[in-house]
Amino acid sequence: MLINRCYYPETRKAIDHYSYALNEEIGRGFSSKVYRGRDENTQMTVAVKVIDMKMVKQSIHATLLKNEINALKSFNSKNILKLHDVFQTQNNTYIITEYCDSGDLSGVIKKRGRIDEPEVLRIMNEIITGLLEINQKGYIHRDIKPANILIEKQTPKIADFGFAVQINSMEVKQQGRHYNVGTPLYMSPQALRQQGHTEKGDVWAMGVMFFEMLFGQTPFTAQTEQGLLTAILHHHLVIPSHPSISDASKDFIRRCLCIDENQRMRVKDMATHPIYSQYCPPIYKPVPLQTQQSSNVPTPATRTPIINKDRSQSQGIRDFQSRPKCQTQIHNDSKVSKRCPSEMYHLPHPPTTVIEPPTSDPMRSKSQKQITESRKTITQENQLEKRSFKKNNTVLQERSINVQTQVSQNTTPVQSPMKFKSNNDILFAQINYCRFLYKFSQQIINSRQLTLSNGLKEKLLFLMAKNIAMKISKLHTIIDKENSKDNTFQLEDFDIYRKAESFQKFSQAIAEYNENYKRYFEKTYQMIVNKSLPQDKKFEALFDKDLSEFESFYFITQSYLRQALQELKNEFPTQSSDLDAFLPEEYNFSYFVSQQLSNYLLICHCTLQNMNDYKKFSKMLKIDQMVDQKQNRCTYRQVEELRGKIQELISK
User: 587-631, pLDDT tens digit by residue?
Assistant: First the structure.
């Protein structure tokens, strides 16, 4: 494991009466580092979060962190993470909080599977106590979930107030119109519909979390946000009979998970419910909502998820031990095949991974050496591929037909190959979706010509890698023997189709792609962890390893694609009097990237339009042609045409 201890002497830095040692880094985020510190007055261990103000670019991040600090400053409960102090210098902001070293509730559930009811009631009562304090001070949390409940010596503490706002603030009314805040599985139907957030959204999340602790699973699950909303609205809430729980707990779940907000409990109602009152004396005393003044708290400008080595301190924690100890290079997925006489689907080989030796300096940026080495590796592989595929003469054609099928001697002959054309097209489109994103990602990685502001290039690389992993994971479900009935893509005559030769070829390719694309996603994830990107709340909401496909992923990804296209569009030279003249060569790569980003934006748009209609999606786009698109010289006329296309896509 690579840690900073070998790079820094035992030198302590002082901030007022707190201190920390540079060799006791316990985590880091996009624009911050977190150290195990000490209060020199009391010798108490604290967490010191150091935010680099040079990485702060956008005012929205200042607002979000100001909300978080002001909220924490307002609370006084043993069940809420305690803020000790905030300091600000010209270069840094320092946030001092209590130090928690016992993980979070999510880790407890994962480790134990489920928690027995008596212990769940104890935990729930303490969380309710914390939530009552939040409500009394006029705030809503908006991201209650097990990962945001820290455990310190068996005491649960509500943490991560990055989405917290005052109940009647304009921010509550305005946020959610462009993208949801929170975590979908714990969001109320009103939040999923983007109808705004109230304290009853926190109550819904409490009900989901209570259910999850008792049964080891959430009450509603789905692959997409729309599917989750459909499940909530149209599927009756089922409380499992095993393990058996008390009637009071069942009633609490039902009253928290009322679809109608008017019928759902309020926060103060939880304090009078039997699961609370029979374990704790009533403590809730209604007080008028009041705005907490925090003018004496300096306003730092970014909230940063913590990367943690040995404890859970906030949402989005990244374990230092999981960082790669050596560099990995991903080969270019540039194999092109031709159509053979039998017109069968021939799928390209998935990308491979080459592990390079560790660098001598583990703390320096790896990107430069990765680019240099990968160019050598990719060039060698491409030369082999060209020779190999000249002999193979096979191609991935959009919507190829006449697929041969395999007939077992002991089974009824499978139906006509034309019957499976639609199924083949569906799988073909999804695989090409992954290939397009992977190949485009490699083209960006292997070029030094693309520059975008505020870490936008790295964010797009991560979003593409995650999108690839999401798609290949979903494809893998149809070949998983343990889920043989899972017809995720609504393939026709699925049981019969599984016996076809074309499906066997798809299965083999999907299995190999799944392994290699997941490895690429892990490498990209670690690359982002090791970088110091400007703080970005939207990106932070997607920066995790959750591969569930939700609509919010595509909404947020589209916003970054539009931003990148706008930047690139502004870099093109002004119109020439000779529209058929070629642009200077230095603009060719920007033109090519703009084309491919436009294609990806179009793919995202079509995905949102046909979230559960894979057949229609396969007919809308020619993704195989996008995969094979190459960088060529372009004219001023082509640039003007692309400008118009970009403007149309941006305005959608």
Answer: 888 888 888 898 999 999 899 888 888 999 998 888 888 888 887
Query: 405, 501 in Cβ contact below 8 A?
Result: yes
Domain 4-100 = CATH 3.30.200.20: yes
Task: Please classify residue 599 by burial: count the beta carbons closer than 10 Å to its beta carbon, then call 0-12 exposed, 13-18 middle and 19+ buried.
Answer: buried
**CA gap 185, 229 in Å, rounded:** 10
Cα–Cα distance measured from residue 421 to residue 377, given in angstroms and rounded to the nearest whole number: 37
Percent of the chain at pLDDT > 90 equals: 32
Letter string b/e over residues 138-177, b meaning 16 or more CB atoms within 10 A of that residue's CB: bbbbbbbbbbbbbbbeeebbbbbbbbbbbeeeeebeebbe
Please report, for residues 225, 400, 430, 491, the alpha-carbon distance to residue 397 in angstroms, rounded to integers and kept in the order given.
33, 6, 14, 20
CA distance 319 to 338: 45
Q: Which residues are annotated as a binding site?
A: 49
Q: Which CATH number fits domain 105-277: 1.10.510.10, 1.10.10.10, 2.120.10.30, 2.40.128.50?
A: 1.10.510.10
What pLDDT is recorded for position 445?
87
Rounded CA-CA distance 137/421 in Å is 61
| CA quadruple 177, 182, 187, 188: dihedral sign | negative
Query: Smallest Cα–Cα separation from 570: which of 641, 634, 631, 643?
Result: 643
Structure tokens at 46: 């604290």
For 390-404, write each residue's pLDDT tens digit.
333 333 333 333 333
Annotated binding-site residue numbers for ATP: 49
